[in-house]
């Protein structure tokens, strides 16, 4: 391929553009791995099932375990299945603000899906060129990114999870509709912050 030949010439000349391209490949590979991790975490429902007992969610929320699981499963399916456009919890009441919030969360995960596909294509091409050029610097840069970035986030959440949790939501939901009133959106009672802390790690 002509592009491969161009990259090979850049490599032999120790070209700055080649290093930049390799860094971009590493960035997209990192984004793919992070996006995939987020997707797999959502799909791994047993973590939440464990936390129902571990965090005593049944007692704290006042709902039965069966009801909690049914509504949680619905939320996850709603977030992950693009065709599910209408938000209708099986048995818990919810407000218009709550419905809007979950629609916004769904849009974020749709963006994650798009990022997952794009980063997969670009990083696959990057890995292919690395094999052809016998230059695996992309893996070293990706490893560094995947260590530094999560470590930084973990440190922030460990220092003060509550503050970090609030900042995260203010960034992604600036309209403030993530602050649920339990009287109108009791689903917040089955989604304690401690669960998100466990999901993060």
TrEMBL record:
TM stretches of this protein: 20-44, 108-131, 143-168
Q: Which UniProt keywords apply?
A: Membrane, Transmembrane, Transmembrane helix
According to UniProt, the name of this protein is: TIGR01906 family membrane protein
Q: Which organism is it from?
A: bioreactor metagenome
């Amino acid at each position: 391929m002509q592009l491969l030949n161009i990259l090979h010439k850049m490599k032999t000349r120790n070209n700055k553009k080649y290093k930049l391209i390799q860094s971009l490949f590493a960035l997209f590979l990192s984004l793919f791995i992070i996006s995939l991790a987020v997707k797999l975490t959502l799909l791994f429902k047993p973590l939440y099932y464990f936390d129902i007992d571990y965090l005593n969610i049944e007692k704290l929320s006042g709902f039965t375990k069966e009801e909690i699981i049914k509504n949680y499963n619905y939320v996850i399916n709603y977030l992950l299945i693009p065709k599910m456009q209408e938000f209708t919890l099986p048995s818990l009441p919810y407000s218009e603000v709550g419905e809007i919030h979950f629609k916004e969360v769904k849009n974020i995960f749709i963006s994650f899906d798009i990022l997952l596909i794009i980063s997969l294509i670009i990083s696959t091409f990057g890995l292919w060129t690395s094999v052809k050029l016998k230059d695996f610097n992309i893996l070293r840069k990706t490893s560094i990114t995947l260590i530094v970035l999560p470590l930084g986030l973990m440190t922030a959440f460990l220092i003060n999870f509550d503050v970090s949790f609030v900042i995260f939501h203010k960034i992604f939901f600036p309209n403030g509709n993530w602050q649920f009133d339990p009287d109108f959106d009791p689903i917040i009672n089955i989604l304690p912050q401690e669960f998100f802390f466990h999901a993060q790690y």
